[in-house]
Amino acid sequence: MSIIVYLITTLFATDFFEIKAVKEIEPALKKQLIIATALTNVGITVVSWGALPASFTIFNFGVQKEVKNWELFFCVAIGLWAGLIN
């Protein structure tokens, strides 16, 4: 899923955001980061609800813990968007 997202982001980078001056580089990179983050968010949504069971068990330092697919989605999504903001 992520390969498709990054191919689409590369399409934007190479075809839609033409850079003609040095001052246009940073805004173009910021747009690419936003596009990649938004598309990756859609991708993890599809994977979280489409490929994972509604509830499953993981081992947390030797203790079994039951987690839900939406909890895993929010964990990944928060890290994704925090990385964009940081």
UniProtKB/TrEMBL annotation:
It is a multi-pass membrane protein. The lineage of its organism: Eukaryota, Viridiplantae, Streptophyta, Embryophyta, Tracheophyta. It is an enzyme of class 7 (translocase). The chain crosses the membrane at residues 33-52, 67-85. This is H(+)-exporting diphosphatase. Its EC number is 7.1.3.1. InterPro entries: PPase-energised_H-pump. Keywords: Ion transport, Magnesium, Membrane, Translocase, Transmembrane, Transmembrane helix, Transport. It is found in: Endomembrane system. One of its GO terms (molecular function) is diphosphate hydrolysis-driven proton transmembrane transporter activity. GO terms for cellular component: endomembrane system; membrane. Signal peptide: none annotated.
